[in-house]
Each structure stands twice: as C-alpha cells, then as structure tokens.
Automatic annotation (TrEMBL):
GO terms for biological process: iron-sulfur cluster assembly; mitochondrial respiratory chain complex I assembly. It holds the Pfam family ParA. Belongs to the Mrp/NBP35 ATP-binding proteins family. It comes from Amphilophus citrinellus. This is Iron-sulfur cluster transfer protein NUBPL. InterPro entries: Mrp-like_CS (IPR000808), Mrp/NBP35_ATP-bd (IPR019591), NUBPL-like (IPR044304), P-loop_NTPase (IPR027417), YlxH/NBP35 (IPR033756). Its cofactor is [4Fe-4S] cluster. It comes from the Eukaryota. PROSITE patterns: MRP.
C-alpha cells in the first residue's frame, strides 16, 4: 500500500509538473517570439536610398558561374543604349570575385570627390564601381564577415554616382549575408534572376527568387542563360544544360520569363577581352538576345513601379 501511495503521489506530482512545465515553456516561447519580433523590428537597418540614385536593379542567381556578371554588364549597356536619355551605373557587389573591371575593361583606383566619396570609373558610357578597383588583381581577399559587411557598406554609401536613373548591382552568388544586407539597406526596384536551364542551377535560382520575395523585393523575372549551343560549323543546335528549365521555373513561381541567351563563344571571348558583345558586335544575334532581355526588364520595371 505504501508503495502504491508513493507511486500515485509521484505520478500526480510529475504529471502536474509536466502540465505546469509545458504551460510555462509555451508561455516562455510566446514571450520569446514576441521579444525576438520586437528586436528584429528594432534591429533591421532602415532602408536608405543611395545618394543620387533613383532606382536600383539587382542581378542575382543563387548558383555561381551562370552568367550574372555578363548579364549585368550587358544589361547595363543595353539599358543605356535603349534609353539614351537615362543614366545607368554598374555596381559590382561581388567583393571576393569582382568581375566588372575585366568585363568593362577598367583598371585603376577611383579618385575622391570633394566630399571624400569615390568617383566611379567609366567605360562605354557606364560608370562602374567594384572592389576590384580597390585591391590588387591577384591579392586574395580573405575577409571575415564583418570586413565584408563594411566593404559592402562602403560600396553602397561612399560612391559619388552623381545623378543616376538606374543602378544595376551585380550580386555575388548565393543567398547569404551580403545579399540580405544589400536588400535590407537600400530600397530595390526589382531583382533579375539568371539561371542556366540545368536542375542544379534552377534549384538555387528558386532559392534566390524566394529570398527576394521574402524580403519584399519585386522579382522582375528570370533570364535563361546558355540554353542552346549552335555549332558554328554545321549549325546543329545542342541544349547542353537543358532547353526549357528556367522558363518552366518562371511558370512555377509565377514570375516573368525575360528571355533566352544562347551559349556562344562570341559572348565569352568578347567578355574576356572587355569589349562586350553589344559593343563589339552589335548586329550579332547574341547582342540581339541581350537587347531583348533588357527591353523585357525595362517593361517589367515600369509595371512594378507604376
Ligand atoms: N551566354 C554565354 N555564352 C558563352 N559564355 C558565357 C555566357 N554567359 C556567360 N558566359 C561565360 O561564362 C563565365 C561565367 O560567367 P559570369 O562571370 O557572368 O557568371 P557569374 O554568374 O557572374 O559568376 P560568379 O557567380 O562567379 O559571379 C564567363 O567566362 C562568361 O564569359
Ligand atoms: Mg559574377
């Protein structure tokens, strides 16, 4: 009997402990969530426009090496030529692997303006800023998170763009700190996502698109890069990375399909030479493909800004 009473007492006690424990931790987690929400609201940097810049467009992907920089670069120049009356700048936000200096054939250190801000370097009518102008070509950039953030802060705030209608930002690959910090610090008019039609790139492109949706940046659409290779000898077409993956992803996500860019040696060679295809062979079908994408982006920008 004593055993039974002890057992019952123990049982009721632990049951009530459990109930109490559960209620307690439930309340705790509610309070914790509320506290976190308040802290996040307080902690989020207030979005501040870049001085002199009317609209910012980011070019992102998720996966690396799918053609963001090439697209951002050619897009800026097309944008420039499509709307001569508008001024366009190009910001390379890839602090670890800046590509814009090579793509735009630019070198050297930016000078400082009277108010101590960096003056962008200009080629083909497009002012550009890149970490590549500030560090040696071959110097490894081995930075911890805080240094990267401070570099991004400098690129966002300490450049004298003068007056720009559009600033195109070439994002680094991924959906990490840099991407988040840029989207939280400046108002962004829209994001262009670049992907090859290959499953492994599309997965990351989808993550990229979802990230922008989450932080309330309008996704202007998806560009499908390297979708078809046409043999220069026999004109046979091969879909090396697949043919329609990005178009299908655009459908699935309910975002606009902005166009197809073929895989073409002319694009690679002219980019490597710093003489982008829209400048060096403006009449080529490759240049026309970039122009088509650029006008689709302009159209989408007007839609989301109105
Ligand atoms: N449509 C294309 N046809 C041929 N070559 C291309 C095409 N698009 C991009 N490339 C080449 O592919 C390589 C990668 O392109 P790019 O640097 O633009 O990619 P990225 O997404 O910016 O890469 P990262 O993630 O490293 O920044 C470059 O050498 C570029 O010249
Ligand atoms: Mg790049």
């Amino acid at each position: 009997f004593t055993f039974l009473v002890t057992y019952l007492l123990h049982f009721t006690q632990s049951a009530s402990n459990n109930t109490f424990g559960f209620t307690h931790s439930y309340m705790d987690s509610k309070a914790l969530q509320e506290r976190q929400r308040q802290q996040m609201a307080r902690g989020l940097p207030k979005q501040k426009p870049i001085t002199g810049v009317k609209q910012v467009i980011v070019v992102a992907s998720g996966k690396g090496g799918v053609g963001k920089s090439t697209t951002a670069d050619l897009y800026s120049m097309n944008f420039f030529s499509l709307s001569q009356s508008k001024s366009v700048g190009l910001l390379d936000a890839d602090v670890f692997g800046p590509s814009i200096p090579k793509l735009m054939n630019l070198k050297g250190n930016p000078e400082l303006s009277d108010n101590n801000r960096m003056i962008p370097l200009t080629n083909y009518g497009v002012p550009c800023m890149s970490m590549g102008f500030l560090v040696e070509d071959v110097a490894p950039i081995v930075w911890r998170g805080l240094m990267v953030m401070s570099a991004i802060e400098k690129l966002l705030r300490q450049v004298d763009w003068g007056s720009l209608d559009y600033l195109v930002v070439d994002m680094p690959p991924g959906t990490g700190d840099v991407q988040l910090s840029i989207t939280q610090n400046i108002p962004i008019a829209g994001a262009v996502i670049v992907s090859t039609p290959q499953d492994i790139a599309l997965l990351d492109a989808r993550r990229g698109a979802e990230m922008f949706k989450k932080v309330n940046v309008p996704v202007l659409g998806l560009v499908q890069n390297m979708s078809v290779f046409q043999c220069p000898k026999c004109n046979h077409q091969t879909h090396i990375f697949g043919s329609d993956g990005a178009r299908q992803l655009a459908d699935t996500l309910g975002v606009t399909f902005l166009g197809d860019i073929p895989l073409h040696i002319n694009i690679r060679e002219t980019s490597d030479r710093g003489q982008p295809v829209v400048v060096s062979s403006p009449d080529s079908p490759e240049a026309a493909a970039y122009r088509k994408v650029a006008s689709a982006v302009v159209q989408r920008l007007q839609q989301v800004s109105s």
